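The methods section describes the discrete structure representation at length, but only in general terms. What matters is that the chain and its backbone geometry are given together, residue for residue. Nothing conveys this as quickly as seeing an actual entry. For illustration, here is how one protein appears when written out as sequence plus structure tokens:
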Amino acid sequence: MAAQRRNLMQSHQSWTDDLPLCQMCGVGTAPNCVYGPDGKGTQSHTNEDGHLGFRGEDGCFLYGVFNGYDGSRVASFASQCLTAELLLGQLNSSHTDNDVRRILTQAFDVVEKSYFKTIDDALAEKAHLSNYLLPHNENVSFHHSSQSQKVQERLKELEQEVSGGAMAVVALILNNKLYIANVGTNRALLCKSSSDGQNQVLQIGRPHSTDNEDELQRLAALGVDSARVKQAGQIAGQSSTRRLGDYRVKFNYNDIDLLSAAKTRPIIAEPEIHGSQPLDSVTGFLLLMSEGLINALESAHGAEQANQEIVAMVAAELAQQTSLEAAAQSVVERIKRLHHDVYVSGRQRATYCSRHEDMTLLIRTLNYPLADGALTPTQGGRIYPVSIPYSNSQSTSKTSVTLSLVMPSQGTLTNGTNTASTLEEGTPTPGSQSPTATLQSTNTQTQSSSSSSGDGSLFRQRGSQAAQPDETGRVPPYVDFSQFYHLWGSDHSDNQSTQGGLGPQ
């Protein structure tokens, strides 16, 4: 039986082996960590996250981040099976938005049902063996036999095999339009520079969690006490109200106190689908993040500016790194260090940072140029950021934090001031030339964006302004110091005569 289940899961892997990987995305990961009193971290379990990034036919691209728990089985199965359900001829350019949404919903339903089919035998065996251990079982002598311990050990093995679930956020690009399908508490951000110079950060959808009012209303309609759910903050160990897998909340929900009054299955795997979002002439990037990454950043700095902070980090790394994989990994490492530093600092938020779960970040660029490592600033390449202060000072207001990106002083860089959390256009704030572009924003809400006014420099590569060497092979200086030397010489003529003079000879 176990061999059959393994073969079925492995068959999904073989279906997608020949699909080409997308070269326009990069993924960064970090395992879970628990800090000791000395600040040293240890991994408490194997990494349970999963991800995918494939290029299909007919201009179709599929990306996903899966946040697994109680094992990686569901996340791994979902990433394989979902790809097979979407990229093996099911989608083509003739499909309408309604067609795409229907196909996405059906794909998630197939993944859920297919996964439970792989553990049917194990669930049946578990139920059969559990019956022997019931107090009212007629075979009383069995409880005192040597087989009792073997049965209990086998039950533990089966529980490990069938337990666990996953949350998923999936992005589909078809006909140059973006669709987001979300189940659970992962997050999708679309960051783009509009034609009027606004840098917009759009969070697509809300997490399906115990503080989502729409989800609480859905549960209340099923007979669940939503006030108790909101107060508890978790259902069977997770804050999500939608999940893939997890047989306990799907089949045994009547045995769970918070869900016992439900008229029908309260925890579902139906995705919430957003789109389509046109990507024509969009310059920016798409971010898919696991709950562990989000929680680590919010634990360290609070939830108010988490979206803006991670976008600033990604923009800074894309300006320095020459590969998307390196950029994504660098951002994850930044958040990991930030989380650790807050813990060891002993400050107020240190109590929220004693541990973090697995972290996954997927970056998909949209007409966004990477840094060219072969070019120097004098050859027309980028002047890279050298420092990014992400400290959330306690002295600032509760809803605002300023992030400084050290950028090249080229043309006119305008210090942008964010408007309210809306898709409406903001009013640009005039500024002078400065090597620092500032991204300042107010708190973002669901299905909203924060817009930083300016000339879009955060999303633009430096123009070609290469200085040509003269006949001696030297590059002319960027700044003319002749006036300085003239004034300096006038004030220090005596010293120059005695010390041989300074300045150009």
Notes: The chain has a mean pLDDT of 78. The longest strand covers residues 165-174. The longest helix spans residues 97-118.
